[in-house]
Amino acid sequence: MKLLDMTRKYGNATYNYPFEPYKVPEGFRGKPAYDYEKCIGCTACAVACPSNAINVKLNEDKSKLVWEFNCARCIFCGRCDEVCPTNAVLLSDEFEMAVRFDKDNLKERGELDVECCQKCKNPFTTSKLISYDIERLKKAGWDEATLAEKTKYIRTCPECKKNIAVENSTQYFVRKRK
Amino acid sequence: MSKTYVVPEEIASANSLEAKLEHLKNIKGSFNVYRVDCGSCNGCEIEIFAAITPMWDPERFGFKLVASPRHADILLCSGPVTRQMYYPLLRAYEATPDPKVVVAIGACGSSGGIFHDAYSVWGGIDKIIPVDVYIPGCPPHPATIIHGLATALGILDQKLELKEHKNGSNESPEIKTSVFNNILFERDVLAEAKQLMGYLYGRKLFDKYIKAVKESPNIKDTVQTKITMERLSREEEDPRYRECMKVIHNNVYLNHIKQFKEIDIADRIDLSD
């Protein structure tokens, strides 16, 4: 009886979790929540992810860029949250993550349209990333004329940009030798 | 690595879904859990022991940790299955009376986690024995473990499902207008804030700082902005934000203002007070 009195004095320490919701503390690192509308497919999260839980790859016929998150591999370090430029990946409060039998239920996928290079017609980035770039350059104080002049290479892939630069410089050298 | 262990016929037939459901009906209110550590880092073990404390009290549902697999109904396996732990895991699996429920706990147990492509591990419990419930997390929160074990028994339902997003628009996501009409200022403030206070508090610091700058009567006037910033940082309760707001002002704001006009040493906020 003495023990019961003490219990009444100090209250009940046990969380009544499955029967009432458990409120996680502030700053809890739960399942990364993916906002498809905000994702631009820049692959910063895939580069930052230490356990390769986030993979960003072209699909088989190279028509879409697929962002795939595998929660079974995630170690909840929050690096994707840290590097995401548009806050499309944010660690949420979700902690009820157990699944039965099928591990695929832990996955999350998002498909983004790819942009093909103007010169070699190979896919190199997403259309959304390019529109995001242009939008940001506008907000950085560039007017339409500067934008048109300076962003002519924005739809060319890095490989073609390199080739163009090499072609231009060799022309210069050949002329000089003559 | 390829799968080498084939579950023997009699174990496979005794572990069908119907047999397991029948077994769960028979043992209601008392579930004995045996914990197998297959090369885990002990993070998951600490969380399992946190989950069986009076704070969470899984004995409300009848969970009890036992010392021998021969007493167990549920096998709780953690770790990425190192080569040394391959046979001990199989011995524990075969020693457990049929029908048994296998729960893979932690990122390593569910898929190999950060060791998924390491040479000396098998990469997940499901590469070797059939797994019924996966509990991801590195390590999982005690509440996640309670939810996972309750899911294994059918008390709770799983919350996650395969999500696929398709056919989104190609429009750029919304970008907030800059206070200087130049987004590079916000970029530098955010980078400095994250460097000072990390990604979580850095983002809050960024919001606080931009709000403070907006309150200045004239943003391009260094004297007025300095007075506003000193007043607002004095009002700030948390000393970390108080100091970091001043540091951002000195390092980023004044650096940015340099493009427009000369600045002198009096524009800097004194950090010592």
* Residue share in helix of chain A: 25-40%
How many individual domains of chain B?
2
What name does CATH use for the topology of the largest domain in chain B?
Rossmann fold
User: CA-to-CA gap between the ends of chain B?
Assistant: 62 Å
Q: Helices and strands of chain B: which structural class?
A: alpha/beta
Structure explained in plain terms:
The complex is a heterodimer of chains A (178) and B (273). Helices cover 33% and strands 19% of the residues of chain A. With 178 residues, chain A is α+β, with helices and mostly antiparallel strands. Chain A has a single domain, classed as Alpha-Beta Plaits (2-Layer Sandwich). A four-stranded antiparallel sheet of chain A has the order 2-3-6-7. A two-stranded antiparallel ribbon of chain A has the order 1-4. The N and C termini of chain A lie far apart (107 Å). Chain B is of the alpha/beta class. Chain B folds into two domains: 9-152, 3-Layer(aba) Sandwich (Rossmann fold); 183-267, no CATH class. Chain B contains nine helices and six strands, in the order ααβαββαβαβαβααα. Chain B has helices at residues 9-14, 17-26, 43-51, 86-95, 106-111, 142-152, 183-215, 222-235, 239-257, and strands at residues 31-37, 63-65, 74-78, 101-105, 133-135, 163-165. In chain B, strands 2-1-3-4-5 form a five-stranded parallel sheet, sandwiched between helices. At the A-B interface, strand 5, strand 6 and helix 4 of A face helix 5, strand 5, helix 6, strand 6 and helix 7 of B. Strand 5 of chain A pairs antiparallel with strand 5 of chain B.
Observed structural traits:
heterodimer, A: 178 residues, alpha+beta, Alpha-Beta Plaits, four-stranded antiparallel sheet, two-stranded antiparallel ribbon, 6 helices, B: 273 residues, alpha/beta, 2 domains, five-stranded parallel sheet
Topology of this protein?
The complex is a heterodimer of chains A (178) and B (273).
Chain A lengths: L1 H9 L21 E3 L9 H5 L5 E5 L5 E7 L8 H5 L5 E3 L7 E2 L6 E10 L6 E4 H13 L4 H7 L7 H20 L1
Antiparallel strand pairs in A: 1-4, 2-3, 3-6, 6-7
Chain B lengths: L8 H6 L2 H10 L4 E7 L5 H9 L11 E3 L8 E5 L7 H10 L5 E5 H6 L21 E3 L6 H11 L10 E3 L17 H33 L6 H14 L3 H19 L16
Helix pairs in contact in B: 3-6, 7-9, 8-9
